[in-house]
Specification:
The chain is built from nine helices and no strands. By secondary structure, it is an all-alpha fold. The protein is rod-shaped, with a radius of gyration of 27 Å.
Length: 252
């Protein structure tokens, strides 16, 4: 998971590995006699099938990564909508509870923005701990106010707070949902075999040509890992809706 969380490190690790596989194939080929016409035909069939399988695996894995990325973006929007709706519903609670809860909800929004912006590290653990503490405080406060004067309006405010807490849980689950390690392992294995076969079938030792397939595959791995990594990549979900919500709170 360390490599998958750091796509650039993954690229640095996979590109030389795949290039070495191609060179090993070329070295093995140099110790053999030339293929006969029938053997060359059979070998080309095997190479074509292996490259096709590699292309399908990369395509399916890329689709899995983009689907997860779109889900994370959608859940960020839903979380912002849930907080905004609950912020308005708090006025339905009796007494002075709404003012205190709205202040807590503004602080909670800032914590959610920090969650989206943070990278891997100890700071993330602190944010998660503060978020859990803030959720307990929000729920205890709204539940106490609703129990003091039970009414359909208080129940509506309580339901809205439940949506806010559930939205955070759905977001966290989506960020944990990554491409399985087994899929990465299989794809890397097929990539090594493909480069080995390409090198074995090469007619001469051309360093530049032997770079093309390893570079293309390593770049594909980099892009997939970048999209699939919620925090370590360049392509990340920016909390644009939460930004706008926080600015609207400051304007009030």
């Amino acid at each position: 998971m360390f490599l998958l969380n750091l796509p650039r490190v993954l690229f640095v690790a996979t590109f030389p590995s795949l290039w070495c596989a191609a060179w090993i194939g070329m070295l093995l080929r140099s110790r053999r006699q030339e293929f006969s016409e029938s053997t060359r035909s059979d070998f080309n069939t095997v190479v074509g099938a292996t490259l096709t399988l590699l292309g399908l695996l990369i395509g399916f894995t890329f689709s899995m990564a983009t689907t997860r990325y779109d889900l994370r973006k959608s859940l960020e929007e839903e979380e912002a909508n849930a907080i905004s709706t609950e912020y308005a519903r708090l006025d339905l609670l009796p007494g002075g509870a709404p003012a205190g809860l709205q202040k807590l909800l503004r602080q909670y929004t800032d914590l959610r923005i920090q969650f989206y912006e943070s990278r891997y590290g100890s700071n993330l653990q602190k944010i998660n701990a503060e978020t859990a503490k803030m959720q307990n405080q929000l729920w205890d406060t709204v539940a106490t106010a609703a129990k003091a004067q039970p009414s359909p309006l208080s129940a509506l405010a309580s339901s809205g707070m439940n949506d806010v807490l559930n939205a955070q849980g759905y977001t966290q689950a989506a960020w944990w949902n990554r491409i399985p390690i087994a899929a990465w392992s299989l794809m890397f294995l097929i990539a090594v075999l493909s480069n080995l076969l390409i090198g074995y079938g090469a007619h001469g030792k051309k360093p530049i040509l032997s770079l093309i397939l390893p570079l293309a595959v390593a770049l594909s791995f980099f892009l997939i890992a970048d999209i699939d990594s919620p925090r370590g990549g360049i392509i990340r979900v920016h909390p644009q809706n939460l930004y706008v919500l926080a600015e609207s709170f400051k304007a009030q």
